[in-house]
């Protein structure tokens, strides 16, 4: 059992039960009633189907490393997801490694070029309809508040920097110029404010004066892949519970 009030970190308990004596629908109803008693957030009271698979859409821009890593983990059965489609605002040649993979596995790819005045949000909403959540695998566009409200479900982003520091563009350069000794990557829920959503996962690696901007970028990209995959895995396993406004507990 996992539940939380608005201002108290979630409480977690494990138990076994006999589904013949306590059917699943009744279990779900009982836990929703329990959440009302404790004024718990509805999103923290979940009774999933057995071994659920989540239908997701993945959005990416020019860089492939996070997208390709997710595709490989999906192929190997390491993520409990079905990839509904991949959407990008950058075109890829037909012989690109990602395009070959998508064609081989019959995963639809949608190229929607964007401009500052048209981010193709309505078209994206139509393409992601029916998905359980969306992953931004280095999708370098800010989603509008109306888009987030219209979709109404969780969107998980990967940021190539250690938030809340180094928000926005070029976080590796920001970190390099600041002379940090740790660089990182952050996976978080998307909110209307740029790079400010509740944090799901963070990973770090040491750097020193011997590192160059290039090595910062290389190390950051490796962290991003791992961080995003771990965040998705935790989310799918229902181990990510929000509380208050900007906090999460990850079991």
Automatic annotation (TrEMBL):
Keyword flag Hydrolase? yes
Keywords recorded for this protein, A-Z: Hydrolase, One-carbon metabolism
According to the entry, every stretch annotated as the Formyl transferase N-terminal domain falls at 55-232
Q: Mind listing the GO biological process terms from this record?
A: 'de novo' IMP biosynthetic process; one-carbon metabolic process
InterPro entries with a match to the protein in the record:
Formyl_transf_N, Formyl_transf_N_sf, PurU
Q: Which domain of life does the UniProt lineage start with?
A: Eukaryota
| Gene Ontology terms, MF aspect | formyltetrahydrofolate deformylase activity
Which Gene3D superfamilies would you find in this protein's record?
Answer: Formyl transferase, N-terminal domain (3.40.50.170)
Q: Which SUPFAM superfamilies does UniProt cross-reference here?
A: Formyltransferase
Q: Which NCBIfam families match?
A: PRK06027.1 (NF004684)
**Name the UniProt record assigns to this protein:** Formyl transferase N-terminal domain-containing protein
Q: Which organism is it from?
A: Aegilops tauschii subsp. strangulata
Q: What is the lineage of its organism?
A: Eukaryota, Viridiplantae, Streptophyta, Embryophyta, Tracheophyta
């Amino acid at each position: 059992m996992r539940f939380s009030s608005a201002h108290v970190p979630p409480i977690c308990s494990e138990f076994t039960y006999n589904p013949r004596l306590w059917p699943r629908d009744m279990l779900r109803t009982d836990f929703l009633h329990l959440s009302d008693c404790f004024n718990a957030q509805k999103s923290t009271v979940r009774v999933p189907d057995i071994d659920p698979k989540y239908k997701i859409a993945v959005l990416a821009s020019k860089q492939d490393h996070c997208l390709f890593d997710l595709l490989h983990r999906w192929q190997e059965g390491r993520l409990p997801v079905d990839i509904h489609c991949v959407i990008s605002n950058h075109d890829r040649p037909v012989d690109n490694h990602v395009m070959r993979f998508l064609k081989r596995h019959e995963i639809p790819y949608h190229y929607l070029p964007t401009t500052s005045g048209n981010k193709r949000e309505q078209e994206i909403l139509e393409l992601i309809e029916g998905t359980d959540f969306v992953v931004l695998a280095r999708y370098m566009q800010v989603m509008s508040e109306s888009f987030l409200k219209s979709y109404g479900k969780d969107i998980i982003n990967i940021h190539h920097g250690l938030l809340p520091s180094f928000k926005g563009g070029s976080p590796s350069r920001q970190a390099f110029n600041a002379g940090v000794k740790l660089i990182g990557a952050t996976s978080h829920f998307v909110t209307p404010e740029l790079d400010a959503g509740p944090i799901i996962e963070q990973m770090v690696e040491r750097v020193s004066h011997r590192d160059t901007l290039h090595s910062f970028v290389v190390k950051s990209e490796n962290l991003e892949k791992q961080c995003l995959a771990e965040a998705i895995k935790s989310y799918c396993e229902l181990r990510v519970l929000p509380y208050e406004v900007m906090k999460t507990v990850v079991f």
